[in-house]
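Why does residue order matter? Because the sequence determines the fold. Keep that principle in mind as you read this record.
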Amino acid sequence: MLSRWLHLEQPIVELEEKIDELKRFAASENLDFSAKINRLEEHKCDVMRRIFADLSPWDRVQMARHPKRPYSLDYIGALCSDWVELHGDRAFGDDGAIVAGFARLNGRSVAVIGNQKGRDTKERQIRNFGQPSPEGLRKAGRVMEMAARFGRPIISLVDTPGAACSPAAEERGISEAIAHSQMLMSRLKVPIIVVIIGEGCSGGAIATALGDRVLMLEHAYYSVISPEACASILFRDPAKAPETSQQLKITADDALRLGVIEEIIPEPLGGAHRDLKAMSVALGAAIEKHVSALETLSPEELLEGRYQRFRKLGDLDDPQATTAHLNGAPV
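Structure:
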């Protein structure tokens, strides 16, 4: 059972097993162990608070990759009604790594695109572990263009270790597809909300992450490169990934401090995978808040705000801002 959980969760899982065993024994023997069970539950909560109060960047990477973490379709199912998924890019084929379609969110018609990794070995192969191919990004673009045509807000859920890097993806123009997707999103005259729900890594993430508001779940990470790949390049040793994750500034706190995102969405104690319902409620509330605010703006104001948002990222013209960023201070 522990293989389905992270190493940092082992003390929690062991306590949960004890609680379950005690409940089964009490039921089978018709005994009242409620007081002892309550004490164990309280102890479990204390252990969880202690563990999750001091997560390292590498711990957060592991949380973002948790095998039980909710994926895009989980959130779509929890938040949306009337979901209609569209397939294919009308040029080459379909890509299981990207889901895209239309739905209703709190009664509002929206377009939703997202990465989908897959739960078991077979589905992960079909979905290429959530790594989008050129046809996946072009499918997403097709849906986003339809959304703009009919004035529908766009919700983009990002959870990918990177874009597809196979020879086939290169042959079909993965780099051009990433650039075209960003260019398209920069021009659409409807609100675009991006949420990093798990891994937000490399070109696969930025391809569908250009929006008016970019949000992150508490235990997600957002990075130009995976910690393992960075360690391989810098140190020629992927085992140094925990060190590079510290240096890359990839956590939600880092992204908020550096102005890369607008909001961190808190996760339930123990992570999103422990309470999908509560996580979905928080995610839905955050999306609704930002969409409602953006819908008050004219198309011209949306485009100008989006342009200015991305123009100021990484701005090195202000020496004081640059020094503050390098020193790790908020600007």
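The chain has two domains: 2-54, 61-326.
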